[in-house]
Amino acid sequence: MKQRIITGVIAAVLFIGITLYGSWPFSLLILLLTGIGMYELLRMKGLEFSFIGGIGLLLAVLIALPQQWMQNLEPFTKTDAIILAVLLLLVVTVIQKNKTDYNHISFVLFSSIYVGFGFFYLEETRILENGIQILFLILFMIWATDSGAYFVGKSMGKRKLWPVISPNKTIEGAVGGIFFSLLVGIISYAVNFVELSLIHILVISVVAGIFGQIGDLAESAFKRIYDVKDSGTLLPGHGGILDRLDSALFVFPLLHVLHLLG
């Protein structure tokens, strides 16, 4: 527990400090986290040191590049990068005579898009007007959801939510997580933490509360399929980057796709 607390405090201070500063240090942090997160997924599949793993890692980082940095690569776009990666991965299946099959390349391509766009939309949120407040509001909602689901589930949970994927999660805990996310939203509105209407904040709260938990379940499914306890060991007592940011990788892209942040 002591190690977990120390790691959590150090990681939080570094992340908050760099996020508040913004600019290129935040962009570099996002790209670093993208690379680590992608490596964790490749490691689950045993592809971390493979050629196709390298393609996937590069693709994830390219997708996560902030828009202003991508302008330096014009006319090359992220769509071009995805198409080129697909073709390269197919070429590898031919060269290796099906030792690398569609299961491998599908995993690499899917993981690159999942991790790359997940971190990209973290960056996109930071550069919005009032982006710092919005970013931390959503993170507070996600953390409140996680804590609320744990404590409510621990004290009141009786009915299993999805035992095949995560046997300890309960329906009561899931409802408690959404309630705590809404509570954060209401408090943020009351103290005028961010200039959004109450309805807008409540909608974001519900999306964060529901899909934050789905993101967590999706990561749990990965770990169960590949029989690993944690996605990585970078954060002692906390696991890997994906263990800490699995909900965020779901929530931030969804909020942007639904145009709830701007």
From TrEMBL:
PROSITE patterns: CDS
Keyword Transferase found: yes
GO molecular function: phosphatidate cytidylyltransferase activity
Keywords for the protein's UniProt record, in alphabetical order: Cell membrane, Lipid biosynthesis, Lipid metabolism, Membrane, Nucleotidyltransferase, Phospholipid biosynthesis, Phospholipid metabolism, Transferase, Transmembrane, Transmembrane helix
Ranges annotated as spanning the membrane: 6-34, 46-65, 77-95, 102-122, 134-152, 173-191, 197-215
InterPro entries according to UniProt: PC_trans
Enzyme Commission number(s) from the entry: 2.7.7.41
Keyword Lipid metabolism in annotation: yes
Pathway: Lipid metabolism; Phospholipid metabolism; CDP-diacylglycerol biosynthesis; CDP-diacylglycerol from sn-glycerol 3-phosphate: step 3/3
Superkingdom of this protein's organism: Bacteria
GO cellular component, one term: plasma membrane
Bilayer topology annotation: Multi-pass membrane protein
Class of enzymatic activity (EC top level): transferase
A biological-process GO annotation: CDP-diacylglycerol biosynthetic process
Family annotation (Pfam families): CTP_transf_1
Catalytic activity: a 1,2-diacyl-sn-glycero-3-phosphate + CTP + H(+) = a CDP-1,2-diacyl-sn-glycerol + diphosphate
Subcellular location: Cell membrane
Residues spanning the signal sequence: none
Family: Belongs to the CDS family.
Stated name of the protein: Phosphatidate cytidylyltransferase
Organism of provenance: Fictibacillus phosphorivorans
